[in-house]
Amino acid sequence: MSHKQLRRYPLYVPYLYLAPAMAILCFFVFYPLLKAFVYSAQSYNLLSPPRWVGLDNYRALMADDRFGSAFLNSIRYFICVVPLLIVLPMLLAILVNRQLKGITVFRALFYIPVITSMVVAGIMWKWIYMEGGILDWLLIDVCKIVTVSPRWLTDPKTALYSVMVVTVWKGLGYYMVVYLAGLQAIPVELYEAAKIDGASAFKRFKAITGPMLAPSMAVVAVMSSMAAMKVFDEIYVMTAGGPFETTQTVVYDVYVTAFNDLKFGYASAMGVILFVVLLVFSTLSVRMSERSYSGA
Amino acid sequence: MKRSLAVIANYVLLILVTIISVAPFIWMLSTAFKGPGDDIFAFPPRFIPSDPRPGNFAAVFKAIPLARYFLNSFIIVGVSIALNVALSLLAAYPLARMKFRGSRFIFIAILSTMMIPTQLVMIPNFVLTVQLGLKNNYLGVILPGAVTAFGIFLMRQALLAIPSSLEEAAWIDGAGPGRILFSVLMPLVKPTTAALAVFTFVGTWGDFLWPLLVIDKDSMLTVPLGVQKLQGTFMNDWRLISAGTILSMVPILIFFCFTQRYFIEGAMTGSVKE
Predict the structure, then answer these.
(1) pTM
(2) Which of A156, A202, B164, B259 would you call most buried, defined as having the most Cβ atoms within 10 angstroms of its Cβ?
(3) In whole angstroms, what is the distance from residue B268 CA to residue A171 CA?
């Protein structure tokens, strides 16, 4: 009797509920993951049957200049974008965490770039960056910083950084909300106690806000480093990898190699390297954001 | 005195960030209304058109099948939401409320998919889609994203928070696991379900790379693919490119107006994505 009460459903029931989701994940994530590793050791163009080449793809990648510069561009992207996306949204979250009139309206407005598709954002910024466009007017006529257009997206020196601005612009609101969730979980009593003890605003930030936000920071660090290493849409829309391939990143190179050059095996080897680098980078960024507060 | 100064400083900052977030949209909107009598490269730029042409928007509809792109996107987004909500709930239910062999392993396996870049699996998935004959097919776009670790994790967190005493009464009344999920648990996780639906909407609505690979037939294009094509169609006529881009944003903006509170709520419960 008691045994029967414990088992309220047949043993297979939990698996039955899991089955549809697991089927999708197996079919479109786990199986393709294995397949990607297999492809990376093959020469395959979809038209003729794949041919085993062992580690040749990886060897060729080491000597591939285009991949080398794409890899370097991805690292540049990571180094510039991730710190900005860790710091700026935190400051923004602190700003909108105040009890001010109309604050919910401001929060919603800051979130609009997040819901905009990257294609729309890319086209909008392309128009802003246009030679003789509104940004040039702002810098030439209003701020008088430059005298001729810097040709934001067509000069090899500035193109990559101009695209980064769009990635950061679109990401701010998203990570702001992640930090906001962290901020609202901090008990108010901590600040009150610190105030009674006479701690300055800066000290309160260093001793309370910072450490209490460390978990949110780790989440933002991982998410933004994954996003930075996987950037594609904004590059496709704004520069198509140019000028002179200076805005080609790893994912862009994977795309071109697989779907323009039809080298599926070679592109898969690039993807595998991206996968490994992502694992390393996200681990690193968690460690770094942990360390920055464990010592304080 | 010092306090009100701080409040003013706060508002100045808030307005500054608002300008940075919103000005690109206003500038594009202004360009979309400009007629041939307006110099769109004028120094200083004019935000209010002197020769306004609402007809730019009609011209976009005439030049490209934008209505068809909207329909394609709505179908893909609608089916994706239904699948994501249903499959995430079904999978999260045993993970949160049942004890069974391998539950820990399965949960970790699901979470580990968050670390796998879609850009790595997209090549085999593309080959698979071609072999299944799902190129230029709604299902080819939808199926790889029909359920995500994020969705399952989000729903599991919500289900875990429900006290088991609520379930207990239903078990005693002889309800099966299906009844428990539908009649007892689902009504209690409505806000999280809504948050998942909202996130799925924004994600699939803006999705670009995967549809770019799977769809090349004009009548099957989604809105982002159609918007990307504007640049070629209108040969650098930025008045019409702007008009098309602005039109493409209308559905998501309306949607956001009604659902914005769920974005904040979703981040509060989940705060883990992709």
Answers:
(1) 0.90
(2) B259
(3) 17
Q: Is B36 contained in some domain?
A: yes
* CB-CB contact of A96 with A106 (8 Å): yes
A73 touches chain B (CB under 8 A): no
Yes or no, beta carbons of B228 and A24 under 8 Å apart: no
Alpha carbon A247 to chain centroid, angstroms: 16
Rounded to a whole number of angstroms, the distance from the CA of B107 to the nearest CA of chain A is 10
C-beta atoms of B13 and A95 within 8 A? yes
Chain B nearest C-alpha distance from A148 (Å): 13
pLDDT in tens, A129-178: 998 889 999 888 888 888 888 889 999 999 999 999 999 999 999 999 99
A205 in reach of chain B (CB within 8 A): no
> Same structural domain for residues B13 and B85?
no
Q: Does A201 touch chain B (CB under 8 A)?
A: no
Residues of A in contact with B121 (CB under 8 A): 28-29, 32-33, 35-36
Asked if B140 and B246 sit in the same domain, the reply is yes
Which residues span the domain enclosing B140?
Answer: 63-269
Distance from CA of B18 to the nearest CA of A (A): 6
CA distance B187 to B196: 15
B248-269 pLDDT tens trace: 999 999 999 888 878 766 665 5
d(CA B152, CA B87): 8
Judge whether B105 lies within some domain: yes
Chain A partners within 8 Å of B14 (Cβ)? 95-96, 100, 103, 106
- Select the residue of A21, A113, A275 nearest B117 (Cβ to Cβ): A275
Contact assignment for B98 to A133 by CB distance below 8 Å: no
Residue B227 contacts A where some CB pair is shorter than 8 Å: yes
Of residues A292, A170, A161, the one with CA closest to residue A224: A170
Instruction: Choose the CATH number for A58-294 among 3.30.1330.30, 1.20.1260.10, 3.40.50.1000, 1.10.3720.10.
Output: 1.10.3720.10
Backbone angles phi, psi at A9, to 5 degrees: -150, 155
* ipTM here: 0.90
Tens digit of each residue's pLDDT (9 = 90 or more) over B28-80 = 999 999 988 888 888 888 888 888 888 999 999 998 999 999 999 999 999 99
What tokens appear for A285 in the block? 């960024």
